[in-house]
Amino acid sequence: MTRPTTGQTLPELSFPITAGAIVAGAIATNDFENVHHDKAAAQATGVPDIFMNILTTNGLVQRYVSDWCGPGPRIAGIAIRLGAPNFVGDTMVLTGEVASVDGDRATVSVRGRNRIGDHVTATVTLEYGAAL
Questions:
Q1: What is the tens place of the pLDDT at every residue in 11-22?
Q2: Is residue 14 part of a domain?
Q3: Looking at residue 42, which CATH number applies to its domain?
Q4: What's the sign of the alpha-carbon dihedral 51, 91, 110, 128?
């Protein structure tokens, strides 16, 4: 990875929201809440279908930034805020921008949108082994 610069944009990533992705993410993160795998149970809460859990969203944000920056830096911190749920049939489009570079740290702002609105906004802090 070349040196990141403040204002640099990350390439857009479209992630289709399928029942398989939602269920696999919930199982992988030991989240057995029925709203993540049982459509009838989810609908009983007033939503149209099963929806993605926060840990899967967190993993997708980390994957997005890691795919962009490569293996050099490590993720030193991540803060996420959930908004509109990711339901089956949605596509989440992730975008990002380098918000700041300070010494051996870079901060990346990430946004994930679906047809309803912002599913996630996040700040990811990258730490490099040596000064940038």
A1: 999 999 999 999
A2: yes
A3: 3.10.129.10
A4: positive
